[in-house]
Amino acid sequence: MPIMACLQSCTWDKLGDKKDFVLASVEMGRWAFGVLILLWVLFPLANSSVDGLDKVRGVNLGGWLVVEGWIKPSLFDGIPNGDMLDGTQVQFKSVTLQKYVSAEGGGGMNVTVDRDVASTWETFRLWRVSDREFQFRCFGGQFLTSSEGDLISATASSPALNETFYVERNDTRVHIKLLGGNYVQATMNNQLTANYQGLPGWDDNAATFEMTIAANNLHGDYQLANGYGHDKAKEVLMKHQRSFITAGDFAFLSRHGINTVRIPVGWWIAQDPYPPAPFVGGSLESLDRAFSWAQFYNLKCIIDLHAAPGSQNGMEHSASRDGSVDWPSPDHISQTLDVIDFLSARYVNHPALLGIELLNEPSAAAVPLDVLVSYYMRGYQIVRNYSSEAYVIICQRIGNADPMELYQANIGDSNIVVDLHYYNLFDPYFDDMNAMENIQFIYESRVPQLQSLDSANGPLVYIGEWVNEWDVTNASQLQYQMYGRAQLQAYDAASFGWSYWTLKNDRMHWDFEWNIKHKYLLLGSSSMKTPNNFVWLTVTCGVLLCALSGMT
Ligand SMILES: *[C@@H]1O[C@H](CO)[C@@H](O)[C@H](O)[C@H]1NC(C)=O
Ligand SMILES: *[C@@H]1O[C@H](CO)[C@@H](O)[C@H](O)[C@H]1NC(C)=O
Ligand SMILES: *[C@@H]1O[C@H](CO)[C@@H](O)[C@H](O)[C@H]1NC(C)=O
Ligand SMILES: *[C@@H]1O[C@H](CO)[C@@H](O)[C@H](O)[C@H]1NC(C)=O
Ligand SMILES: *[C@@H]1O[C@H](CO)[C@@H](O)[C@H](O)[C@H]1NC(C)=O
């Protein structure tokens, strides 16, 4: 009885009315709760098809051909001075003046040593030349230079020898000297000059600075390759590419009903085996292997251009050197189109190819919509030039952008897909949500968005990234199962399908294989078909919310 009452009260219209659920759950005995959970967890998932194909039930091969340090931190373990990689943000405080070094106006002018507090003008991004030699990039993009005599200024637009400094470290203290040998000091009138007399000790003197590492969050291909240097980087990456993902993983995926892998690649793959420094070759051969494994285990591949020249989002997974976003320039865009041409020519007739994703996660703040749409249109044409079948996948901008913007853009006529990434993470909005609120968010926010896009009579919808992780601390296995099930229910309704981020990860809750083996994510069967995903969602959502309120 209470089960029926609950199911009936939980219609779609009433989702917002929590009182009903609470009342219903109070009536529920423990047995009823148990049965509900069992029913809900055991129910197979709905699955329907796109153009006669099964929908995509995919997994991303993240951190494989495009490095992401947080996925496998040990890749960076052997880099000398490994906390001073490209893009690391540092601040310097004179130990004699007790003031921070500052690029006036963020760059383009003098450098002073006169700030009590370090903020953007006082923060410099490293460009690493060797493990002891660095260039310092200001907030405005200029580099510190010694080209104006003794005075250090923040006026160089590109770095060369006069912009390269040798850094000696002793714990948190540093000396900075020119390649010519002169040490940099903070003068009594608050300037930064390269004329310290003699060899400074580590006591409180004008050439000694306290270095603070303000941010050290870039661990991508650029940092790895430039940090190790070419030969060692090649060795580390070869080993990684051969061991991180293997044929055995494809067998595992196929056993668990996964039908697609989304494979992030970097732009340098098009110049394999000799890409421009510091990038190293090898990813093309690995991608070839992935296609063979996919064919053998009857999986499809989506090639995802995750890292574009210049970086489209400033993050490590777009191989940004220092956090800047330089992709939206005609040169970079034309180079990117060449990469799409290369990938299309090579893979479009491979039986395992499902589609090509033109660009992952362009930044809404740094990539104007018109620039992106024009790129997508040209990319679509290139893929279509080789194939009328291959799906062309375009990714929504990340940050403040409505995916509807791509539905209205008219990018291509056929087999076009918009990729949305759904994480209940990376936004303070989710910080204080408990398990139930997270699940409610899936049904009350994600599902309606999916419904409106699915019915927009435009491109297909693809949840190309999602994960069974959230900001809830110490959640139980059952709570994870419910959250995972809610997401699967919701994303199964996407017209193209979904792919989990990611196959392997040092953080277990992000690791697909860990989730499956430890039963934190219950995939269910993919064989059952339902006529209407959203009716199905309504019912299971009701069961779920009842069960959750019963738990608290
Ligand atoms: C900045 O440089 C100009 C010209 O070299 C100089 O006149 C001025 O005093 C400098 N300002 C500081 C704060 O050092
Ligand atoms: C490098 O700096 C010196 C002075 O410190 C200057 O004479 C020289 O022209 C600079 N070189 C370049 C390429 O700017
Ligand atoms: C680091 O500084 C301390 C004094 O603060 C000194 O005793 C030590 O020898 C220094 N280490 C190196 C490697 O220079
Ligand atoms: C399509 O292919 C033709 C013939 O190879 C070529 O001339 C044209 O530039 C290509 N179009 C695009 C958008 O690549
Ligand atoms: C989570 O669990 C750990 C280990 O049991 C415990 O130390 C920690 O306090 C818990 N955190 C919260 C927020 O409950």
UniProtKB/TrEMBL annotation:
Keywords assigned: Glycosidase, Hydrolase, Membrane, Transmembrane, Transmembrane helix
Matching Gene3D superfamilies: 2.80.10.50, Glycosidases
Transmembrane segments: 21-43
GO terms for MF: actin filament binding; hydrolase activity, hydrolyzing O-glycosyl compounds
Start and end residues of each Glycoside hydrolase family domain: 245-506
Superkingdom as given in the UniProt entry: Eukaryota
DUF7910 domain boundaries: 81-213
GO cellular component, as recorded: actin cytoskeleton; cytoplasm
Gene Ontology BP terms: actin filament bundle assembly; cell migration; establishment or maintenance of cell polarity; polysaccharide catabolic process
CDD domains: beta-trefoil_FSCN-like
Family the entry assigns: Belongs to the glycosyl hydrolase 5 (cellulase A) family.
Protein name per its UniProtKB record: Probable glucan 1,3-beta-glucosidase A isoform X1
Species whose genome carries this gene: Elaeis guineensis var. tenera
